[in-house]
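#struct-pred
JK: can someone run the complex with ribulose-5-phosphate? inputs below
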Amino acid sequence: MSDELKKQAAKAAMQEVRSGMRIGLGTGSTAKHFVDYLGAEVANGFECICVPTSEVTAAQARSLNIPLTTLDEIDSLDVTVDGADEIDANKYLIKGGGGALLREKIVAAASAKMVVIADTSKMVDHLGAFPLPIEVNKFGLGATTKLVQTIMDEFAAQGGLALRQTKGGQAFETDGGHFILDASFGLISDAKALSNALLNVPGVVQHGLFLDMCSAAYLASPDGVVELGGTV
Ligand code: 5RP
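RT: done, structure tokens with the ligand placed:
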């Protein structure tokens, strides 16, 4: 998607924030634009306290003098604005392409509202074309991989399972010190059942299905930004 569309979606989401709010800051190339817009407002006197969903976003926010805190200091947020890898008509999401899904889900769950920003190319009829990121504990990786593969077989996955690698060929490590398995389902027919099955595997820390979490989405296309509203 073009960077300009990412910017437009991020700018539209600025209408969700008010001075004085506690805000969750997402991770990824679209969320980065939102943090830039927020930083510009902070420079003009906008007051907020924010919780970043990754070390990368934390560093960006610090560079813009956006006040940061943690979910130890405050236990709830007004809104979180974050990107997504896929979004369907129910506002069910696949997230974690950037590897921040665990913190993203913790922060979103602590927020009264989760707002997604993306371009319309992220809209899908059915989730699953984007490989589902599954964050796993390093301990027992082989055994966990086998159990996840069994679940993929049960859910008729059309593709394979891969340990995420860095460009340098090392296993990618999340901010929490875990690995990520990318599971290519092709089509996820029952996202809730799949979520439950994956969370039942002891070595699975979390997965990138965000179900009943997204309250609104701003989706940019060359014709403008559309809002997917509704209730969660
Ligand atoms: C990171 C994420 C991102 O929000 C998702 O990958 C979308 O990223 P981008 O805005 O760069 O397309 O889930 O873990």
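RT: quick notes.
Residues 132-207 form a domain with the Alpha-Beta Plaits fold (CATH 3.30.70.260).
The first strand starts at residue 21 and ends at 25.
JK: thanks, will look after standup
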